[in-house]
Q: What sequence folds into this?
């Protein structure tokens, strides 16, 4: 086969690298007067945003920050953070969003590992900074972020943010460069080992913003976001860059509201005052909002809220719907920049219960996302079968920063491995069922520990159950239920096996999921936050 | 400055080239049962579309078509055309959409110039093909397209399309390759010289599809396209690949309806039967539809129709609105792949008249499009001032095929020159005023001939007027009005000048637009189709 010719580019043609700065063209042309709001402190338009982005870049340059440097930000959600989302990558530097909730020793590790050269630090984190300052190996400049715009305290600060902007020119000639240049980085706090750095290029952020805005807007009704919406993040901007939605909101030209540090009544009051219609958060934040005193009087109708981070419980979804909130799930990981799927209805649900169920599933892939579910043998599962979710999309981290082994494991076989188990239904909707580390691999097939636990817990004598995989010479692994009986009740392994076997006969689970052994315990080990400690259980009962 | 580091890619990571095949992931995952309809002839779902794309590629390969070859299609709008939009680029070949209305000698020129190796030809064009067949220098294979699926006549045909697909495997392993590979090409028929070939890469088509779907869907209300819409092109698929909308519609997973050869009642009946809600066309087609007998009974409400190609007259827009059609303008050229702007309301119009006016303007840039209006001196016009519209976007042709001088002229200064004069209003809305070749450049400023003609035509003695630019030693050019007086009326140059001067005094036009000379004629030369022949007038009265 002859090779496909590449397009000729005449010398004067503009090749148009996909750079973060290009996201600003449309909002500046279409709605330059739309507002950016920070609490009750500041309010300005997109034209001013663009000028402040220029000022921030000029100011950072005057402090010696150059292309290739990493600039780390410690802040609550603010207009300053939004400005740094643009100015830092646009000048060719790398924005590091710092998870301020990491333990101090992990903070030190990530700042040194990323070679952060400059810090932008909210005054509230100065005690934290003081406690780690002498362990930071690469930091040369620190800019203070303070709502009160006070001069920085003595000792090591280069400037206060607003003073720096006031003294700097809005004219900064943001250069063109390779669209594969690193734009952002942040660290995932895995359960084991040191945090791992993921990173995203300009090209990836632009493609994510385009695809996500097409997905969000394309819904016929439920879950639809449009250019008249008002956006307020409720997933912190330091966490997976607020799922990348500030880039999406800016490209779409939405009014944007930044709430500072989250408090339930603060979020609610601001949302009401600024008529917020589009947010995203973890289930815990939504639950807090709904149970806050202020919420009972608040009119929450028409607020579109995407839930991610962990599964949206049916009861919480129902409570939100009763208040008129259009709540639905988005699924993604730190490694996927943000979303892979959204649970916007693809067709009208059969009834309210079906609609409710769909909202709590992971949903359908957004444009350009290719999803597969892999069986234990590495091939595709049968349609509807549970398997590890793997993905391709143009915005997935291409590795972990300076961590080649973990990078190769993440991308084994050319697909990003999410570590989640899920099934794609007949309607194409993805449903998550398990974390892969909790799944039992037996004879090349996978058994869901969560599914088995659910079935065994229905036995009348069972008070609590955890199912773990234990090594088996023949099958690789076999499921082992750990059972705590109800006070006064009794059952033996045969009874539990017979109970599970009935589900296998009815086809609810495969035959190979029926355990041979059952272990009865007085109590099941828990973690500090009260979750079943499967890691410890696997070690103890191996 | 240190260089910005590019992102590391671990060896196993998938870099995700932007290829046309990637547009199919989402619709296949989300709505595989949605329909593609061809007249009353054929109806199948996206799953079948994907299989037929595989079959077409296998079939073309069996005929010797390879990556890098150009495959030219002569067809009316059909499912076959849609299949070739995907299969041909996806196999690494180049799709050439043939403008079947070009004069035969230009057809020959474009097919030879593009080195077309295979043709797909609708049976209706066999007489045309026969008349040019012996002048085609590169064509080796011809496939017959026939709704009746008859065997091809004797002489030079390789296969009939449906028979070829039936004999070919749906399994075709579409390879990955460079996203800058040429995917499509077609020829613009300029008013002078040979047609010029424009070309678009896989990357460009994917980025256009993403940005256009984000733009179309993001509208709060007026002009909004969503995943529940039903699409039918009414700009032919051989013309600027139907503005690229078949790619957009496929990415969005819309039901798609292909009408074959356009007839007013055929389009209307099909639109009604299949409940079409989204189309695009030139003003002439809309006018034909509205005046067709069938239209008077048809329910056209909720049909969103984008108008391009030439200006949407206010009266036509009003007539369409009265019938419930949501009509609005899109602006683009062959050179821009398709759209640069859309006239979806950015804010609620003040009243019906304002809304009507907005629909007839060119509108606002779609995501990633950067627009400028350049004054005669090459700098930006003042806000609101008319100038040549130049653009950057990731999907603009990077030159004319094998035509280096014209390519450099197109991209002079790093912006694509549209050849149109327009002004960007205070609301950011682009309004076209002129073609640049009809504009008069005087003393580094531009004067709109159309604007001057409009003003002069308001003088009671003037029956007809054309304004041309004539050479001037001091100013470069000066405007020269050519005036035909009404029968019985009289006026001299002073009267006309005084009339124009009054507008200059009121600020409606600049002072330098007032002509020194006025020429009175008995008649103004026209072209064959009755338009004022400015080219001839410029030659005659220079």
A:
């Amino acid at each position: 086969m002859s090779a496909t010719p590449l397009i000729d580019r005449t010398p004067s043609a503009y090749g148009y690298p996909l750079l973060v700065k290009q996201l600003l063209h449309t909002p500046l042309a279409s709605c330059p007067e739309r507002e950016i709001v920070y609490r009750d402190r500041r309010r300005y338009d997109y034209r001013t945003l663009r000028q402040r982005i220029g000022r921030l870049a000029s100011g950072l340059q005057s402090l010696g920050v150059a292309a290739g440097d990493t600039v780390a930000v410690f802040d609550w959600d603010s207009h300053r953070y939004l400005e740094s989302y643009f100015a830092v990558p646009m000048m060719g530097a790398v924005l590091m969003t710092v998870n301020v909730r990491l333990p101090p020793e992990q903070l030190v590790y990530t700042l040194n590992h990323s070679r952060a050269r400059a810090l932008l630090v909210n005054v509230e984190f100065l005690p934290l900074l003081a406690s780690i300052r002498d362990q930071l190996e690469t930091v040369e400049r620190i800019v203070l972020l303070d709502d009160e715009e006070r001069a920085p305290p003595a000792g090591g600060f280069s400037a206060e943010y607003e003073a720096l902007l006031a003294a700097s020119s809005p004219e900064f000639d943001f250069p063109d460069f390779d669209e594969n240049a690193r734009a952002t980085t942040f660290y995932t706090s895995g359960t084991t080992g040191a945090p791992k750095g993921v990173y995203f290029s300009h090209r990836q952020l632009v493609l994510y913003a385009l695809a996500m805005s097409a997905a969000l807007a394309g819904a016929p009704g439920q879950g639809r976001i449009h250019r008249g919406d008002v956006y307020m993040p409720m997933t912190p901007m330091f966490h997976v860059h607020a799922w990348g939605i500030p880039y999406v909101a800016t490209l779409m030209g939405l009014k944007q509201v930044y709430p500072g540090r989250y408090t339930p009544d603060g979020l609610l009051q601001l949302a009401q005052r600024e008529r917020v219609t589009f947010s995203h958060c973890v289930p815990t934040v939504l639950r807090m909002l709904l149970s806050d005193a202020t919420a009972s009087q608040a009119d929450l109708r028409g607020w579109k809220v995407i839930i991610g981070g962990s599964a949206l419980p049916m009861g919480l979804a129902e409570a939100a719907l009763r208040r008129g909130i259009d709540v639905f799930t988005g699924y993604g990981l730190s490694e996927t920049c943000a979303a892979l799927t959204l649970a916007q209805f693809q067709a009208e649900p059969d009834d309210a219960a079906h609609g409710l169920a769909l909202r709590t599933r992971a949903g359908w892939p957004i444009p350009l996302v290719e999803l597969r579910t892999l069986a234990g043998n590495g091939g595709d599962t049968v349609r509807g079968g549970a398997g590890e979710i793997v993905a391709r999309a143009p915005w997935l981290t291409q590795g972990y920063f300076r961590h080649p082994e973990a990078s190769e494991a993440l991308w084994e076989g050319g697909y990003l491995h999410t570590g989640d188990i899920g099934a794609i239904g007949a309607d194409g909707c993805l449903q998550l069922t398990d974390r892969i580390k909790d799944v039992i691999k037996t004879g090349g097939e996978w058994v869901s520990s969560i599914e088995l636990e659910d079935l065994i817990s229905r036995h009348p004598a069972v008070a609590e159950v955890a199912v773990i995989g234990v090594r088996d010479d023949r099958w690789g692994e076999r499921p082992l239920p750990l059972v705590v009986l109800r006070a006064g009740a009794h059952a033996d392994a045969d009874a539990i096996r017979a109970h599970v076997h009935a589900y296998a006969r009815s086809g609810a689970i495969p035959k190979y999921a029926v355990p041979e052994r059952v272990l009865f315990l007085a109590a099941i080990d828990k973690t500090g936050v009260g979750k079943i400690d499967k890691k410890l259980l696997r070690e103890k009962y191996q």
In short: The first strand of chain B starts at residue 35 and ends at 38. The mean pLDDT of chain B is 93. Chain B has 18 helices and 25 strands.
